[in-house]
Fold this protein.
Amino acid sequence: MRTDDSSTLAPPSAVDARLFHDAARRYGHRWAFDIIEELRRRPMRFNDLMRAITPTPHAKSLRDSLRRLQEQGLVAHPEAGEGARYEITAAGVGLAQVVTEFATNLQHWSATHLPSSGTDGP
């Protein structure tokens, strides 16, 4: 019988790892979180969105990412003619909240458990 604290920890689950990697593949495509974060602030037209993201994406990359986010139900683009704006959906807001919470927790964990590199950036 083991008496150390590690015996109380649940073993890593292959299912949990697959879920994490699946979510990262599904939602972690280039520009996805930049787009979601900008649209969380306000609905935007394509060119405004392109200017808001740094570094500036290529138009084709941004268009492809927007199309993918629309297919995933995270971004909407009501067809209202000229000046139509992209907007975040309720599902997109929910994903943004999950990602923000994860990033905050990861930052706290890193500050506690990883040696300081002497820089303020990731």
Notes: The first strand starts at residue 75 and ends at 76. Residues 25-112 form a domain with the Arc Repressor Mutant, subunit A fold (CATH 1.10.10.10). The CA atoms of residues 3 and 9 lie 12 Å apart. The chain has five helices and two strands.
